[in-house]
Amino acid sequence: MPSPASPLRMVIQRALALSAVVLLGVTACTAAPPVLPSTTPAPTQAPTPTLFTFGTGTDPLGFDPALVSDTESYRVTRQVMEGLLTVNAVTGDPAPSLATEWTEGDGGLKYTFTLRPDVLFHDGTAFDAAAVCANFERWYTMPVSTRGDGSSSMFKQVFRAFSDDSENSLYDGCTVGSALQVTLGLKTRLTGFLPALTLPAFAISSPTALKANTANVLDQTFASNKVSRYGLHPVGTGPFTFAEASAGSVTMNANKDYWGEKGQITTLKFKTFEQPATRLAALEEGSIDGYDPVTPDNLDKLIKSGKQVLQRDPFSVMYVGINQKIPVLQDVKVREAIAAAIDKSLLASNFFIGGTATTAQFIPPKLSGFNNAVEGIAYDPQKAKTLLAASSYNGEELPFYYPTNAARTYLPTPEKVYAQIAVELTKAGFNIKPVPIPWNEGYLTAVTRDGNHALSLMGWNGSYADPDNFVGPLFGSPGAELGMDDPQLTSKITRARSMPNGPDRVAAYESISKQIATTVPAIPIVFPISAIALSDRVQSYPLSPVLNEVFNQVKLVTPTTD
To answer: At CA 125, angle to CA 124 and CA 129, rounded to 5?
Structure first.
């Protein structure tokens, strides 16, 4: 894969082993020992106080991973909380975390987990099987007043429904076998179940903290998002404990009782810089130790200054959402005209890091289900005009939502991408109304709930290695973002996710990719390459395509003494 040109002193590391994260292997039990934090007891001497400050592009939306799904919220909760499973950094397979081993039973309807002993939550309470079940039951029974329609909830995306629609839910309970043994039940086989458990949304919270901080009562606000008191102060078992958060800053401290490798960092701070230039300036002046994401317009400056730039292998998709609740967008010719009007190659070359590939489908090429035969709708301005003339479109104003003051790993420069697409759609004959919304003032809510958004700029970061992770959340059930109701597509996705790995499942997802390309419920644009920048203080960083980057694994250069 090509990368940007490299002048003298450039340092670009590609983390080659991480490309294997897109392998599919779902196993019935643990395989060869994975790469995991060491459980060697910590040295008896107190660690040297070490502050590490990392720059980000936007504020988190909250810290209860069951209710938020944005990258920056997860960046925080990954440090504080852990799930039963994590991602093996070498193979991409599910690997032990709070569960040390597991077995599959009853034809894939039962999974029994052996839990890690002697683990404490940050509030001093014990992690055990009862805590696991308390979390799963909370997710399953979460009231509508807390979750809304649940469309953005990872629980719904994996299990399809909550307890108030139990007939359609795939979740079939959690059973305590002993203090360190728990069994999760499914109503139907779910091939991607174990990979799905690596999602940050399934991190285990302290039940005591959930209750004390009324986790299901959203009576607080953070970054214009309704949250609970628990959502302002999460309590898990991870290598860092949550200290405080305010607009522009989140602080965590090393967990002195952590069961695994504690690392070198004693205080971890995430600091928000909405503008790329300010992130770059902060790194150059030494007030931060790294930042994410790198934008194309500051990449050259980083290279010339000799900073480390690490590129993640692409495992996300940037797309234009189309809301079929808007009557004229129910006309497939209108949706085809939108697709034909967009020059994906120009967008990829001008607004993304070099090597970013255009795409006609949502499933990445390294996952089964990517269909080589799907070409999609090619850029053809004249065809766009012809399709539009033959459609039911009659000049209706189309509100086009896009985020501002934000840089996402899948969308580093949203304002520029919007401007280019809007110009192309206008030339084709569309009446586009710009609707800019600052990311931290409710953009995600505005485009994922009922509203007048006709078009929207969005993206999806892959979180685990299964094709369902890319098509299930968007197209597997009706939702307000796309306003689509396609029972046939929903049925095909539901069937495919329960099929065992093999040629039939591959064919099923290839068929799904073809149908999405044909019906155009959304327009995939590119599989973006994202990158981070680091100071010379950093010796190594746990780069991950699925963003499973936990900072106790950051290695710092040891200062030399004269």
So the answer is: 145
Tokens of 163: 């307890």
358 in Cβ contact with 377 (< 8 Å): no
Write the CB contacts of 163 (distance below 8 Å, at least 6 apart in sequence): 140, 141, 169
Unique residue bearing structure tokens 């970013």: 356
Cβ–Cβ < 8 Å for 513, 370:
yes
Is the N-terminal amide bond of 239 cis, ω within 30° of 0?
no
Q: How far apart are CA 379 and CA 428, in angstroms?
A: 11
- Overall residue count recorded for the chain in this entry: 562
The set of residues, in sequence order, having a beta carbon less than 8 Å from that of 35 and lying 6+ positions away, is 88, 89, 90, 95
Tokens linked to 439: 């990311």
Span 149-193, pLDDT tens digits: 777 789 998 999 999 999 999 999 999 999 999 999 999 999 999
Please determine, for residue 110, whether its predicted confidence score (pLDDT) is greater than 90. Answer: yes
Give the integer Cα–Cα distance in Å for 397 and 143: 37
Question: What pLDDT is stored for residue 45 in this prediction?
Answer: 52
pTM across the whole model: 0.87
- The CA radius of gyration of the chain, in Å to the nearest whole number, is 23
Q: How far apart are CA 8 and CA 11, in angstroms?
A: 9
CA distance 534 to 358: 28
Residue 260 — φ and ψ, nearest 5°?
-110, -155
Helix, strand or coil, per DSSP, at residue 401: strand
- Tally Cβ neighbours within 10 Å of residue 448: 21
Task: Output the 3-class SS for 198-263.
Answer: CCHHHCCCCHHHHHHCCCCCCCEEECCEEECCHHHCCCCCCCEEEEEEECCEEEEEECCCCCCCCC
Q: What is the pLDDT of residue 6?
A: 38
Residue at 326: amino acid letter: I
Name the 3-class secondary structure at 273: coil
- Give the residue among 52, 51, 49, 69 at the shortest CA–CA distance from 61: 69
